[in-house]
Please model this.
Amino acid sequence: MDTKIRMSAVTVKKLPGALGLKRRRNFFREMEDCMSVDRPRVVLDCSSVQKPNRALVHLLLRCLEEAMKRHGDVKLAAVSSEAKAVLEHSGVLRLFDTFDTTAEAVNSFYDVPASMVPQAFVTGGSRQESENAT
Model:
């Protein structure tokens, strides 16, 4: 069985510290460029977020929506406890995978889910190896 999984690069974007209307618009325009691929994979570095609010929640949801339209995903990294509380209170946190560091978030895109691994690899070897063992 020849199964090939095409994977695009992972894009890491740092969220701006202050999320005024103009900054949100500019950031989302930049995100649209990252989303122009099939199956976009994006990590949002939240380490600079100073005051999490509804504007942040809305921006994150828009980013996730755009990624999902293209069968992609957005993951969050370095989310402060204050930001986590706001996202949890709004019910949005459960929609995102969150990681302590951007490196962990990027690496999570490269973990192959068990459902994608061919059964021959899961069972531990070829038929010939099984016959030789008996």
The chain has a mean pLDDT of 82. The first strand starts at residue 10 and ends at 14. The longest helix spans residues 54-69.
